[in-house]
Amino acid sequence: MCKGLASLPTCCLERAKVLKARLGSILQKPNWNLSGCKKRQNKPSLEECLRWKQSFEKLLSSKYGLCAFTSFLVSEFSEENIAFYFACEDYRCTKSPSKIPAKAQKIFDEFISSDAPREINIDHETRDITKANMLEPSPSCFDLAQHKIYMLMAKDCYPRFLRSSAYRALVVQAKPVAQTAEQPQEKKA
Known about the structure:
Elements (H helix, E strand, L loop, with lengths): L2 H4 L3 H18 L18 H6 L4 H6 L1 H13 L4 H13 L7 H13 L11 H10 L9 H21 L1 H9 L3 H5 L8
């Protein structure tokens, strides 16, 4: 450690570590794939945008909704939550038992460990249970942590997304399905 950093209080060094991890996660390409998020040319219809308000599940099941929600989480520096959720979904679908331990360790190191670069916000009890599950990784070893993160997103991030200017802008820009199917009207002279 350089002399300048050594003279800083521990709390400042911890804060710098957190900021480094957050900036690193923004610059990193996420391991899970949201193909088409940035290149999608078609905007969602008004009906699709309004469907997202019905439930968190409907938001996540919409390709464009998931992209919009993920962008919102990135803007709030909490994209590790959705990344962890989908990393667990991918992990649970692992067909080869020989790949499970390595995938489990990768998820643990990236999201759960106390020095993880994209550490998720879970309580110590959940972290300890998940760490114990790592002794014999199984497809369900992250279920408790994943459920906690899902509930955090559903009860905290999702309502904030619905109140955000980003969501309101999508709704304003969206066109009703009936209007998009019609021919453009002639301009009045």
